[in-house]
Amino acid sequence: MPPSPLNQSAIDSVRAWLDASDVLVAVSLTAAQRTRYAAAWELREKYEHLGPTQPRIFLPVDFPFNPLRIELDSSCCLRLPHIEESGNFCHGVLPLPDDLADPVKAAGRALEQFLAYIPNSADTEWVEREFHREAHDYWLRHVDASHPPKGCLTNELLLDVDPDRQTPLRVGTLHLIARTRAIASSSNGGPKGAAENAGWSLGTIVHGSTLVFRLPGDQRWTPSTWPRSFQALAALAGEMTGTPGLVNSWYGSRQWSNDVPLFIVALQNSVGFGWRVINSRTRTSTQPSIVPVKVTRIDRRWALARDHRTEQLSEMTGKRVVLFGCGSVGAPVAELLARAGVGSIDIADPDLMRTENISRHPLGLPANGRYKATAVCERLNASIPGLKAAAHIMTAQAWLIASNPTADLIVDCTGDRA
Description:
Blueprint: H1 8-19, E1 24-27, E2 37-43, E3 56-60, E4 69-71, H2 103-121, H3 124-133, H4 135-145, E5 156-160, E6 169-175, E7 181-185, H5 190-198, E8 208-214, H6 230-241, H7 246-251, E9 262-268, E10 271-278, E11 289-297, H8 300-305, H9 310-317, E12 320-324, H10 330-339, E13 344-348, H11 372-383, E14 388-392, H12 396-402, E15 409-412
Parallel strand pairs: 5-7, 5-11, 8-9, 12-13, 12-15, 13-14
Antiparallel strand pairs: 1-2, 2-3, 3-4, 6-7, 6-8, 9-10, 10-11
C-alpha cells in the first residue's frame, strides 16, 4: 500500500497545476515508484539531446519537504552536466519555510530550473563550460563509473609532492596493504617513510613510479578532453610539457611487472587527475591500458592551508618552538602549534602517561606507561605532514643545560614556579 502524503493539500495543489501544464503530460507510476512518489509527468516535446527516454518529473510523497525530482536517461551522465549516474537532474533547489504556504511556487522553482536547462544543454559551449567549472567533481564521477580490469583494485592515489613544481617529476610509489590505495611521495623518506610516519601499513613492498606533470589553469578539462587511452594520455603530457616522448620514456625506462603500482597524474591548480597504468596482459596488445583514479593530495601545504595564504605557512614552517611539559596543558598547545604550521617542535618532559591522567590528557589508554613526550610527538608526526616533532625525556632545566636553545619561541607548560 502506497504511503500517505505528509501534506495532502500541497500534493493536490501541485498535481492540479502540473496536470494543467501545456509542456507536461501525466504518466503512470510503477509499483516501486508509488512507494516514493505521488504522481509523475513527462515532457510533451521530444528533445533528442536529452537521451532516448523522455525526462520525467516526479512529485515526492513528502513534498514540499523534498523538492520535485527530475530524471533524464542515465546515458546523459557525463555527457551532459548536472546529471547523476541515476539520471537525476541536480536542479539545486532546496526546501524553504514558505513552501508550505505556497507549494505551487516551490514546485515552480525546480521546474523553472529544468526548462532553462533544456536549451542550455543543447549548447556545446555551455556544456563544456559547466563541465570545466566543476572539473574535479565530474572526474570523481568518471572514476566511480570506470570498469578496471579484474585484479586492479587501486582507485585512489595519495600524492605528496611539491605543488609549486612546474617541471615533470618521477615519484617513488608503493601500494598500501589493501591495495585499494597507493602512495607516491617525493619527501626525504619516499613513499615508505611517508606511509610509516602516518601509520599506514604497506604489506609486501613492490616499488613503482608516478609521473606528475602540470596542466595550465585555463586548460579545458571535460569529458570530451579526457584521455581515454595510453596513447592519448602520452600525447597530452607531451603537449603540455613540451616533451613529446615524456610518457613513453618514463614507461620504457624499465620492465615493469604486472602488479607494480604505476600512475600518471596531471595537476591543475589545486587538484589532481590521475590514471593507473596497467601493463598489457594480452599478446595482441603492446600498449598498456589506463584506468582513472582519484588523487588525494597529502602534502603539507594542502593539509594545513588548502593552498591559501601559502606565504604565511612557508614562514611558519621555518619556525622552531621548544615546549616544556606536555601534560594536560602542554599536549594541546603542541597540537595547536603543529596545526598552525610550526615546522619544528621540541618537547621536553620526563613524565610517564598514567591511567589517572586520561580524564584530562589528549592521550588515551593506549599510551599508558609510555613517556608523554614520545607519545605526543609520534601522534603529531603521524597527523601533520612535514612536521618535525622531537621528544626529550628530561626536565626543562636539564634540557636548557644540555642543549643550545636557539628557538623562535619557548613555551613553559610545566606549571613549575622555578
